From TrEMBL:
Span of domain HTH iclR-type: 6-69
Statement: the UniProt record of this protein carries the keyword Lyase: no
Domain IclR-ED as annotated: residue spans: 70-256
GO-annotated molecular function: DNA binding; DNA-binding transcription factor activity
Protein name: IclR family transcriptional regulator
InterPro entries: GAF-like_dom_sf, HTH_MetabolicPath_Reg, Tscrpt_reg_IclR_C, Tscrpt_reg_IclR_N, WH-like_DNA-bd_sf, WH_DNA-bd_sf
Record keywords: DNA-binding, Transcription, Transcription regulation
Top-level taxon: Bacteria
GO biological process: negative regulation of DNA-templated transcription
Record-linked PANTHER family: HELIX-TURN-HELIX TRANSCRIPTIONAL REGULATOR, ICLR FAMILY, HTH-TYPE TRANSCRIPTIONAL REGULATOR RV1719
Length: 265
C-alpha cells in the first residue's frame, strides 16, 4: 500500500465496496474474513460508518450491515453536479483519441434518434449529421443499439408506428425477420452495427447508455469509412469491444449499477 494512502480510510472504502457487491447483508465476521482485516478493526470501522449514516444495521441480533442512505445522498450530489452531456462528451473525446474515428452521442425521442453531440476525428469520416437533427432508429447503429435493449414486441410496435423498414440505401435491412435476428446478435455481442444502412459509405458500431434507474437514456457510436474496415474483421471486433466498454463505463458514471449492456450480454 502506498505511503500516501491512509490505511483506515482505505479499509473503510473496501468495506463499503464489499457490502455494495454482496447480494446479502454481511456480518462483522464475514467482512473481517473476506478482507483479511482484524475483527476489532472491522468493528471500529463499521460502527463509525454506521454512526455517520453510510451503513445501516439490518439485524441487531446477528449484527448484519448494508449500505446506508447517506451514501446514496452523497452519490446523488455527484450526479446532480455532473451534467450528462459533459460526462458523455469526455467519453466521446476518449473514443476519438483511442479509436481514431468519429464518435457520436444520441438520445431517443418519440421513436426517433436525435443527435446530442459528436466529436470528429481528422483521420475519420466527416458526416453531415448535425446536433439536434434526427434519424430513424432502424437504419442507424445508434438506433439499433437502443432497439436491441427492448423486447421484440416493443420493437415491432415502434417499426409499425414509424412506417416499417423502408430502404434508405441499397444496404438497408428491409426484412423484419432478418432485422430481428440482427438485434439478437447485437444483444449477444454487446454492440450494434450499421453496415452502410444509412449512408452507403459509412460503417458504425454503437452501444446503449443506461441511467441511474436502469433505463436506456442514450447511445454512443464510432463511425468509420466502410473502405477502412470492410476486409478487417479484427478491427471491427476491437472497435465493437471498445464502444461497448465505453458505453458501460459512461452508464456507471451516471449511476447505472448493472454489469452488462444487454440481458444476454
Amino acid at each position: 500500500m502506498s505511503e500516501k494512502i491512509n490505511r483506515s480510510v482505505a479499509r473503510a472504502l473496501e468495506i463499503m465496496e464489499l457490502i455494495a457487491q454482496s447480494k446479502e447483508d454481511l456480518t462483522i465476521s464475514e467482512i473481517s474474513k473476506s478482507l483479511a482485516i482484524p475483527k476489532s478493526t472491522t468493528f471500529d470501522i463499521l460502527y463509525t460508518l454506521l454512526e455517520k449514516g453510510y451503513l445501516e444495521q439490518t439485524s441487531e441480533k446477528q449484527k448484519t450491515f448494508r449500505l446506508g442512505m447517506k451514501l446514496f445522498q452523497t452519490g446523488a450530489h455527484y450526479l446532480d453536479r455532473t451534467p450528462f452531456r459533459d460526462v458523455a462528451h469526455a467519453t466521446l473525446e476518449n473514443l476519438v483519441e483511442t479509436a481514431g474515428e468519429t464518435a457520436f452521442l444520441a438520445i431517443l425521442n418519440k421513436d426517433e434518434l436525435v443527435y446530442l453531440d459528436k466529436v470528429e476525428s481528422p483521420n475519420s469520416v466527416r458526416t453531415s449529421a448535425r446536433i439536434g437533427s434526427s434519424n430513424p432508429l432502424y437504419c442507424t447503429g445508434l438506433g439499433k443499439a437502443i432497439l436491441a435493449t427492448l423486447p421484440d414486441d416493443e420493437v415491432r410496435a415502434i417499426l409499425k408506428r414509424t412506417g416499417g423498414l423502408r430502404p434508405v440505401t441499397p444496404y438497408t435491412i428491409t426484412d423484419e425477420a432478418q432485422f430481428m435476428s440482427i438485434l439478437a446478435q447485437a444483444r449477444q455481442q454487446g454492440y450494434a452495427i450499421d453496415d452502410r444502412e444509412h449512408n452507403s459509405e459509412v460503417f458504425c458500431l454503437a452501444a446503449p447508455v443506461y441511467n441511474l434507474h436502469g433505463h436506456v437514456s442514450a447511445a454512443i457510436s464510432v463511425a468509420s469509412l466502410f473502405s477502412k474496415v470492410k476486409d478487417d474483421r479484427q478491427k471491427i471486433e476491437v472497435l465493437g469491444k471498445m464502444i461497448s466498454a465505453a458505453a458501460l463505463e459512461l452508464s456507471h458514471r451516471i449511476g447505472y449499477r448493472g454489469h452488462s449492456l444487454y440481458v444476454s450480454g
